[in-house]
């Protein structure tokens, strides 16, 4: 019985072997050469990529103590089609010498379909080479320093904008933009601003201190913002001062028109959609809205509807300046201008909201010299003494002085003729002011 069972098993095995050979012999004949050719190469590639390359890199570090880091260019700035050679330079940072050169690198990309790697598109890059002992200094300090410097350069070279809130009272729509803008290209700087030099220097120092006080505001727990109140008669250069501040700080300007803001919620949304490093301006705030408690007691004008009337309150404006919502973002400057500082609510201009009050006064002699330099390109003249005497006894705005100098310049006169015409105009204006004052005194006496 045992012999019969063993013979039957051998017969079954032989039949299976014959079936396999008959069905797969031809296929194996074709696949065997391919596998024999592919398997060693595939194993070699895998072994080289995962093992040999790692050990080769370690061996190279022993022989060559220098480390290279490739910094790829941003796709928006790089031009792959025209790779121009970059001169090799050496830079020193904290007594550590590094070499920077331009090159082109191929980024390796993986192919999931074939389980292998391929060379990607060639990209332009900067290769930084330094000694291995300075690895931590370069990675932890130098490269973050380069990134900060790069951000500062991009910020300085960007196109600055002048924003204005759109002429509508409804900012609740998700599809409606609260701000529209144009490019800001105002040429005014502190060098061309007609103001006393000592006052200009104080303002510039204050702006510098604010711009460099990020750690101070964070340490004290205060929002990183500063308020300026510009007050004075019309024509004294309040708007020009704002342009000079924006050019000095390299900030954008957001010009808020309160009369088209429907309510406090709309004012809050305007604040949320402003960016950092910006100047928020509300000009002629004493005329923009009636921000006193007496407004609620007076009936609305018969021609205005509930939708057309602005319901911005003093409380909403105060929260706009230094409330909780004012802390969103940072590095903001808030500027109010007014012709009548006595008409403003004391809560609006107290310390902490308006940190610096700047009086834009009538034109003095130092401001006149700046205007003469701007319009006539003259630093000194024999008639400067006469102009100084005339300006001391009269109230004339820088805008009036600039117009007088510009009128003489338009007439094609020389510097001497322009100064003579301007002095004559000042004398006539002084006579008119003296006559007006005399009439007022006689009226009071009578």
Automatic annotation (TrEMBL):
Pfam families: AAA (PF00004), AAA_lid_At3g28540 (PF25568). Residues 224-364 form the AAA+ ATPase domain. Coiled coil: none annotated. GO terms for molecular function: ATP binding; ATP hydrolysis activity. Keywords: ATP-binding, Membrane, Nucleotide-binding, Transmembrane, Transmembrane helix. InterPro entries: AAA+_ATPase, At3g28540-like_C, ATPase_AAA_core, ATPase_AAA_CS, Mitochondrial_chaperone_BCS1, P-loop_NTPase. The chain crosses the membrane at residues 20-39. Belongs to the AAA ATPase family. BCS1 subfamily. This is AAA+ ATPase domain-containing protein. It comes from Paspalum notatum var. saurae.
């Amino acid at each position: 019985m045992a012999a019969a069972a063993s013979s039957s098993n051998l017969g079954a095995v032989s039949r299976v072997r014959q079936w396999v050979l008959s069905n797969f012999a031809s296929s194996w004949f074709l696949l065997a050469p391919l596998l024999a050719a592919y398997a060693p190469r595939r194993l070699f590639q895998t072994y080289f990529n995962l093992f040999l390359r790692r050990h080769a890199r370690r061996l190279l570090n022993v022989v060559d103590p220098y480390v290279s880091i490739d910094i790829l260019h941003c796709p928006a700035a790089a031009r792959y089609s025209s790779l121009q050679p970059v001169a090799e330079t050496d830079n020193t940072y904290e007594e550590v010498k590094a070499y920077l050169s331009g090159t082109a690198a191929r980024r390796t990309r993986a192919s999931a379909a074939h389980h292998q790697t391929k060379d990607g598109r060639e990209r332009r890059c900067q290769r930084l080479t330094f000694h291995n002992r300075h690895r931590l200094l370069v990675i932890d300090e130098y490269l973050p320093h380069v990134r900060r410097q790069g951000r500062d350069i991009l910020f300085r070279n960007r196109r600055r904008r002048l924003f204005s809130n759109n002429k509508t009272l409804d900012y609740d729509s998700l599809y409606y933009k609260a701000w529209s803008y144009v490019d800001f290209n105002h040429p005014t700087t502190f060098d061309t601003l007609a103001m006393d030099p000592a006052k200009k220097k104080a303002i510039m120092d204050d702006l510098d201190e604010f711009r460099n006080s990020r750690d101070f505001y964070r340490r004290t727990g205060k929002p990183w913002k500063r308020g300026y109140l510009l007050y004075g008669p019309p024509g004294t250069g309040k708007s020009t001062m704002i342009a000079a501040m924006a050019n000095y700080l390299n900030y954008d300007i957001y010009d808020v028109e309160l009369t088209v803001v429907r309510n406090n919620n709309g004012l809050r949304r305007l604040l949320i959609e402003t960016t950092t490093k910006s100047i928020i301006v509300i000009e002629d705030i004493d005329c923009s809205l009636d921000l006193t408690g007496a407004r609620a007691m007076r009936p609305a004008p018969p021609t205005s509807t509930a939708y057309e009337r602005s319901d911005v309150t003093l409380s909403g404006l105060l929260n706009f300046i230094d409330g909780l919502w004012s802390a969103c973002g940072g590095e903001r400057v808030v500027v109010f201008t007014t012709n009548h500082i006595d008409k403003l609510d004391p809560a609006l201009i107290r310390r902490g909201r308006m940190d610096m009050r700047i009086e834009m006064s009538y034109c003095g002699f130092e401001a006149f010299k700046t205007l003469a330099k701007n319009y006539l390109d003259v630093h000194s003249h024999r008639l400067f003494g006469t102009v100084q005497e005339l300006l001391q006894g009269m109230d004339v705005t820088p805008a009036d002085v600039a117009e007088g100098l510009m009128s003489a310049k338009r007439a094609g006169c020389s510097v001497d003729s322009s100064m003579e015409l301007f002095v004559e105009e000042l004398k006539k204006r002084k006579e008119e002011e003296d006559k007006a004052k005399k009439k007022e005194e006689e009226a009071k006496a009578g």
